[in-house]
Design goal:
This protein is α/β, with parallel strands linked by helices and 381 residues long. 34% of the residues lie in helices and 25% in strands. The longest helix has 20 residues, at 354-373.
Length: 381
Amino acid sequence: MTRELRIALVGAGPAGQAHAFGYRNVQMAHDLKDVRIVLDTVVDPNLELAESVAARYGFEHCVASVDELLAGSAVDAVSVALPNHLGAPTLTKLINAGKHVLAEKPLGRNATEAQLLVDLAAKAGVVAGVGFSYRRIPALAAAAKAVADGAIGVPYLANARFYADYALDPETPLNWRFLKETAGAGTLMDMGTHALDALEFLVGPISEVTSATLHTSIPTRPDPANEGARGVVDTDDSALMALRFSGGAVGTMVASRVAAGIPVDLSVEVFGSEGHIRFSYADLSYYTLYQTGANTPPTDGPRRIIPGPDAPHFANVMPMCFRGNPTGYGEAFIAEVQDFVRAIVTGTRMDTDFEAATRTMLAAQAAIDANRTERPVVLAH
């Protein structure tokens, strides 16, 4: 029996367009073949942009605000891809209207905003998820499964890095990402939350931030609202964290938006009692696995593991489903949206629901507190 879901998209920028791409491909998953996705409305105050995105992806309508959407369209579910300070109030409106919601990370600007959204969604009984698309790259998902299955024994050490250079130019204009009031934090919220989620995906909950450094390398930037003047940047360009995990492992998270020569790269590695696993977004079609005792010198060493149809998400996102065909960034958004739709039609929770996203926000908040006090912070899960 076919079930119809009418979808709205709030925020027509690059992240919102990635969500739109995901909805266009939901039915690639065999278990969702009977779900009819109707792309109903794009919401953005820039109506010219909204109309362009609607035309490209096949949405039926465009409106300038969420209030207009709720007054005039009977949508079932809404993707929200907005700047951090706009996320919580927009999600609150949608949840109060009974809509299922899929939000971009981070979930608000701080852990308090995130927890309020958790409580609101639970009371409303709606599906409330956060994308965290990177964990849906088949190779990273397969690496996480290998760790869970004991391929490297007991995890001892885990490190994640997320580097980009989009803010390297000191003449990049001041925008919402550079201001605490609108972003909550800088690189920590923008990229660090992805790295923290990857660590928890592979190793389990973070229990303590033993130390943190949030550093601003470029303290002022041109202020678009005041020609010829420079505004103060009060968010971090680089974030460094030392971590403990509830399972006993220790680790680090390093993120930077001023990493010269690296447009984007998330990498994660886990060392255990019987080997290690490594993944890098720069080579996202495989992960490497080393297992003690699997080989003997001089030919021992890490092996490249290339996922195939048996890997998580692979068969649901690949148009030609054969091992060795490389998956990419877009496929991760297909898988993210499929998981959201699947949760709606089955009445289950996403693995990255608001509660899971709040754990990441608690770790980010702990980093802010540890940086300020120069003392360890134990997470209150």
